[in-house]
Design goal:
single chain, 253 residues, 26% helix, two-stranded antiparallel ribbon, 8 helices, alpha+beta
Length: 253
C-alpha cells in the first residue's frame, strides 16, 4: 500500500508510471475514504503537478475520478451509469438502478411555442408545447442537462408536478394517460457549451454525449428530448444479434 517510487531511468513516461500505480492503489481500495488532491499526489511521487494532471486526465476519461478546475479530484460512484441500446429507458431509473439516489434541479417548466421542435413532433409550428428543463444529478454529482418538449394538449397536467425527485415518464402515464412505447434515439459526441460545462461542473477535458430522442405512444410522437450527459459518468452498451447488430450512419456535411 502507498505510493511506489517512480523510475526516472526506465524510459516510460512518468505520467504513465503514475497512472499505473494509481490504478493499482484504486483496485486495492486504498482511496475508499477519499481521493488525494493534485498537490498531495505530486508530493507523494515527487513529480510536477503537470505530470499529475496528465495521469488524472486518463482517470477522468475512464470515469474513475472527476475533478473540475479549482476542486480536488473525487472518486465517481461505482458502478458507473450504464444503459443498453435498443431499449426505451428512463434516466431516472438508470441512475436509481446503480444504487445512487437521483434528483433534479428544475430550471424551467412552462408552455411555449417552438417551430423546429413542433415540426419534429409532426405538429404545426405554433402548437403549444410543455417545456421542461432540468439539471439531473446522481448523488451529489451533476450528470446531465435534460430538456424535454411535449404536446401541451397531452401534457398540460404536468405543469403542476414537482420534478425534483420524480420521473417524467411515470407522471406522463399517471396524469396524462400517455405511455411511451417506442421511438428513435440518436447519440453523438459533442462539445458542451460554456453554460452546460458550468452546470455539469466539468472542464474542457471531460467529454459529453448528446442524446436526441423522439418518443412515441401508439405511433404518435409525444416527446422530443435533448440531453447532454457527462461522458465520464454515463455509457451505452449494445448486444449484437447476428441478424441485425447496430447501424453506423456517417454524418453528412
Amino acid at each position: 500500500m502507498g505510493a511506489t517510487p517512480l523510475r526516472r531511468d526506465s524510459g516510460e513516461p512518468l505520467w504513465a508510471q503514475l497512472l499505473a500505480d494509481l490504478r493499482g492503489r484504486l483496485a486495492d481500495g486504498e482511496f475508499a475514504d477519499g481521493f488525494p488532491g493534485e498537490l498531495s499526489i505530486a508530493e507523494q511521487y515527487q513529480v510536477s503537478r503537470h505530470t499529475v494532471r496528465q495521469a488524472l486526465a486518463r482517470l477522468r476519461g475512464e470515469g474513475t475520478v472527476t475533478a473540475a478546475r479549482g476542486r480536488a479530484p473525487r472518486l465517481l460512484p461505482s458502478p458507473g451509469i450504464e444503459q443498453s441500446l435498443g431499449t426505451l429507458y428512463s434516466l431516472f431509473a438508470a441512475v436509481e438502478a446503480t444504487g445512487v439516489p437521483q434528483r433534479s434541479v428544475v430550471h424551467v417548466l412552462d408552455t411555449r411555442a417552438d417551430g423546429v421542435v413542433a415540426a419534429r413532433l409532426g405538429l404545426e409550428e405554433s402548437t403549444p408545447l410543455v417545456y421542461l428543463e432540468r439539471l439531473r444529478l446522481a448523488g451529489d454529482e451533476p450528470l446531465a442537462v435534460d430538456r424535454a418538449w411535449l404536446p401541451a394538449d397531452l401534457a398540460a397536467p404536468l405543469l403542476d408536478v414537482d420534478f425534483t425527485r420524480t420521473a417524467l415518464y411515470e407522471q406522463y402515464a399517471a396524469l396524462c394517460g400517455v405511455h411511451l412505447t417506442g421511438g428513435q434515439e440518436h447519440i453523438r459526441a459533442v462539445i458542451p457549451t460554456p453554460g452546460e460545462r458550468a452546470l455539469l461542473d466539468i472542464d474542457g477535458e471531460v467529454a459529453a454525449l448528446a442524446i436526441d430522442r423522439l418518443g412515441c405512444a401508439g405511433g404518435r410522437p409525444v416527446e422530443w428530448r435533448h440531453t447532454v450527459v457527462r461522458g465520464d459518468m454515463f455509457s451505452v452498451t449494445a448486444d449484437l444479434p447476428a441478424a441485425t447488430g447496430y447501424r453506423l450512419r456517417p454524418r453528412r456535411a
